[in-house]
Amino acid sequence: MTPHETLRLFTKTLDNLERWMDKAEASAKERSFDVDVLAGARLAPDQFAVLQQVQSACDQAKYAAAYLGGKPAPSHPDTEKTFAELRERIRKCTAFVATVPEKDLAGALERKVAPPWLQGRWLTGRDYLAHVAVPNFFFHATMAYAILRHNGVSLGKMDYIGSLPTREA
Amino acid sequence: MTPHETLRLFTKTLDNLERWMDKAEASAKERSFDVDVLAGARLAPDQFAVLQQVQSACDQAKYAAAYLGGKPAPSHPDTEKTFAELRERIRKCTAFVATVPEKDLAGALERKVAPPWLQGRWLTGRDYLAHVAVPNFFFHATMAYAILRHNGVSLGKMDYIGSLPTREA
After folding, report:
1. Rounded-to-integer distance, Cα B69 and Cα A72, Å
2. Using H for helix, E for strand and C for coil, what is the string for B21-60?
3. A165 secondary structure, DSSP code
4. Rounded CA separation B48/B85 (Å)
5. d(Cα B91, Cα B97) in Å, to the nearest integer?
6. Residue of B nearest to A147 (CA)
7. A40-61 pLDDT per residue, tens
């Protein structure tokens, strides 16, 4: 995957995540509870809830686009409390990712990526994608899915994967 | 990520998964239960247990190596029942992946990948990696992690990510 293909995959998966949220909303309605209860659900008391899992997946996509595209990341404060607000967060994120054109990603693999949490050390763009952005993005997206699934939302693998660009034999 | 880098990332993550299993074993010992109870744990009654999550993560890596490297995938029947057997499965998988050298992956992105479940349709190697292998591999690895975490195994994000090839400023 090129950096541009990686960003498109993140956007596709965030769009899929909105479909999981559709199913969570339908399930909450059917079972007569407020869907925003699920925003606070988690699998362990010392783990992120759905809210933070979605915020974190968005941030992985946002920072990958910013670091690799060589532009500042917009600030998206973690203030969301509801599914409706999480949807806005996802759309702000994918709108920002879409502002990074393929041409700005030329040379991205050789870029020096020095996020604050590396405390002065750095990774090549190539290593940042493979060792940080890709595994972390799918970690948080899958964890959001896992928490919804654990709470009885009827999700299956094709909800996770979304559409496939298959071709005729 | 090139196809070769993607396969290396899968192998790194499967090695990390063995470290999560180390922690699960330590936790089981400390809490006086048989660790193989965790092999059957799941987050929902109609979801794969840890056993199948690990088998599936291995299969995503194995098939990606086989399809993209243009060699047949070895048969690894899903007969495991214990953590010890899952460790053997992981090692058989990573040993196979290691038999695919970088030179065999030249042209992999343009290869025609037609797994049986596509029922005659096919994906380019490029699309197979981005839309199937990468998201599915991390889905199953993260789900194994999530189930262990839900069952009180003390895992954190750095256990998931493993080592980072950071460089000095």
Report:
1. 38
2. HHHHHHHHHHCCCCCHHHHCCCCCCCCCCHHHHHHHHHHH
3. -
4. 17
5. 10
6. B43
7. 999 999 999 999 999 999 999 9
How many helices (H) and strands (E) are present in chain A, helices listed first? 7, 2
Indicate yes or no: CB of A165 within 8 angstroms of CB of B127: yes
CA nearest to A132 within chain B: B161
Are B23 and B153 contacting, i.e. CB atoms less than 8 angstroms apart? Answer: yes
Which amino acid, A53?
Q
- Confidence band of B169 (pLDDT split at 50, 70, 90): confident
**Among B1, B132, B56, CA closest to A165:** B132
Residue type, B33: F
- A118 contacts on B by Cβ (under 8 Å): 166
pTM more than 0.95: yes
pLDDT single digits (tens) B48-88: 999 999 999 999 999 999 999 999 999 999 999 999 999 99
Going from the C-alpha of A92 to that of each of A82, A96, A97, A98, the distances in angstroms are 15, 6, 9, 10
